[in-house]
Amino acid sequence: MAYKTFVDNVATIVVERRLVGELWEIFSPLSVVRMSSETIAAVCEEAPEDQKRRDQLESKRVSLAGGLEVTGRALRGVKCGT
User: Fold this and answer.
1) Tally: H helices and E strands in the chain
2) 14: in domain
3) What's the domain range around 52?
4) By CB atoms within 10 Å of each CB, which of 2, 48, 54, 82 scores lowest?
């Protein structure tokens, strides 16, 4: 059991130092300031198909919220259970 834990810990440390550790250098404030607008856009922007899906879902949310409001107004005068 101790050997497995040791191997897991070593693997975790290696991954953190090699992959995650370098993220600070890549995304440090100074390196971001030096990036071109195109590079920043490529890193930060969502894919066009994701934006399209987000717009569709927002439209659906607005429509459903409107329907909920109409239903609520229609049911205000209705008494339940009598």
Assistant:
1) 5, 0
2) yes
3) 46-75
4) 82
Alpha-carbon span 66 to 74, nearest angstrom = 12
Where b means 16+ CB within 10 Å and e means fewer, 6-19 reads eeeeeeeeeeeeee
Is residue 41 a contact partner of residue 47, using CB atoms and an 8 Å limit? no
- Is residue 82 domain-resident? no
The contacts of residue 22 (CB under 8 Å, 6+ apart) are none
Kindly report the CA angle at 8 between 6 and 13, in degrees rounded to 5? Answer: 95
Residue-wise pLDDT tens digits, 63-75: 999 999 999 988 8
Question: What is the spatial distance between Cα 57 and Cα 6, in angstroms, rounded to a whole number?
Answer: 47
The pTM of this model reads 0.47
Q: Cα–Cα distance between 65 and 57 in angstroms, integer?
A: 12
> Rounded to the nearest 5°, which phi and psi values hold at 47?
-65, 150
